Amino acid sequence: MSALQPLHTADDPTLLVKIFGKDRPGITAGLFDTLAAYSLDVVDIEQVVSRGRLVLCVLVTAPAEGVATEGELRATVHSWAESLKLQAEIISGKGDNRPRGSGRSHVTVLGHPLTAESTAAIAARITSTGGNIDRIFRLAKYPVTAVEFAVSGTETEPLRTALVTEAAEIGVDVAVVSAGLHRRAQRLVVMDVDSTLIQDEVIELFAAHAGCEDQVAAVTAAAMRGELDFEQSLHARVALLKGLDASVVDKVRSEVRMTPGARTLIRTLKRLGFQVGVVSGGFTQVTDDLKERLGLDFASANTLEIVDGKLTGRVIGEVVDRAGKARLLRRFAAEAGVPLSQTVAIGDGANDLDMLNAAGLGVAFNAKPVVREAAHTAVNVPFLDTVLYLLGITREEVELADGEGAEH
Questions:
Q1: Fewer CB within 10 A of the terminal residue: the chain, N end or C end?
Q2: Is 180 exposed, middle or buried (0-12, 13-18, 19+ CB in 10 A)?
Q3: Quick check: is 192 catalytic?
């Protein structure tokens, strides 16, 4: 059987029928009932409804000779539109819509709020790279405004570089990913724990019980800024916990505060069939509990040594440091059967940089400046579930999948 040939050529006469007005049920069916009398073929169609106002565009072939004249079709469509208090416009032309340019990307913009000024700046920068905006779609209106631009005509990497620079200057968050079927494929999402999945630094929770919170916090801050070697700082901080009773583990678990939107993020990803994991420079005594409570697929962290019911001030096993997090991302991806290009990593500190750079999409979440500059994209609002919008998932889809509604 031979392949089907195109029904229409670029030289075939076509008509663009545009309908405007107050939306109500039956308009689309009514228009096509009207057009059906002329034995037309539908070449393209697009419909948008905003605040109850409809814009319906249909590209159809011109009436065949002997069926009717173009003038008769125009008169019929205008008469139908007027009967419904709608406006109609019909434009003659040839062939289909022009094809989209090569190099296609999805540009997601997050604003809190998203201003006209910042939107203009993003649109202008897209144009300056040689890109064309083919479509704009709102993904969410809360807890942030999130819109997605479908862009063609420029390659993803230079577009990302240009827009990340622009976003930093105007105070919005922008993510740029290449278009294609891979965006709908199964993904693996791996995130840091301290100050990402949860609001706390776990070692500081332990330190509060040991009476050395200020000392530990100072070392933690320096390590996250990249000023100290992580492994050395880890050993120095854990040594201060020597002698703590092991019962403190349960107390720390109860003190952990989830980041707003964390449960929504994980629940939605799991319902979509994604796999989710955590890697942490913290401790398995906490991450194992999070894995069980949240239904995570993977979890790895350092392990505090406990002997005779007391913390020894040491960790056992391989240290999960900056390089270790990237190794674990690759291991999780291999076990999940997901290509590295289909992984998403989320983190906030210098310790996460290798993991963010190794992932297909690295997201800096309320991160330190050095991390924001190095990651593929940054999210600077305190809601972890905004990461869903970077994956093209709308707020409406989240709420439909979640019978109990959203957290915000």
A1: N
A2: exposed
A3: yes
| Angle, alpha carbons 220-226-231 (nearest 5°) | 60
Calpha distance 27→41 (Å, rounded): 19
**Exposed / middle / buried, residue 35 (Cβ in 10 Å: 0-12, 13-18, 19+):** buried
Whether the per-residue pLDDT at 363 is higher than 50: the answer is: yes
- Single out the catalytic residue among 12, 41, 192, 354: 192
What mean pLDDT comes out for the span 170-179? Answer: 90
Q: Give the amino acid at 7.
A: L
| Lowest-pLDDT range of 27-41, 55-69, 96-110 | 96-110
User: Is 12 designated active site?
Assistant: no
Assign 4 a pLDDT band (cuts: 50, 70, 90).
Answer: low
What's the pLDDT tens digit per position in 154-169? 999 999 999 988 888 8
* 379 within 8 A of 223, measured Cβ to Cβ: no
CA–CA separation, 264 and 350 (whole Å) = 26
Amino acid at 146: A
329 touches 339 (CB < 8 A) = no
Mean per-residue pLDDT for 219-244? 86
- At 183 the pLDDT is 65
Q: To 10 degrees, the CA torsion angle through 314, 316, 318, 319? A: -30
**Which residue of the set 41, 134, 194, 348 is catalytic?**
194
Using alpha carbons only, how large is the chain's radius of gyration in Å? 27
CA distances from 45 to 78, 105, 177, 276, 407 (A): 18, 22, 26, 38, 37
Collapsed DSSP state (helix, strand, coil) of residue 90: strand
CB-hemisphere CA count at 13 Å for 98? 7
Q: Kindly report the pTM of this predicted structure.
A: 0.82
CA–CA separation, 387 and 389 (whole Å):
5
Q: What is the pLDDT of residues 141-156, one digit of tens each?
A: 988 999 999 999 999 9
Chain position carrying tokens 């791996």? 190
Concatenated DSSP letters of 248-289: HHHHHHHH--BPTTHHHHHHHHHHTT-EEEEEEEEEHHHHHH
pLDDT, tens digit, for every residue of 268-298?
999 989 999 999 999 999 999 999 999 999 9
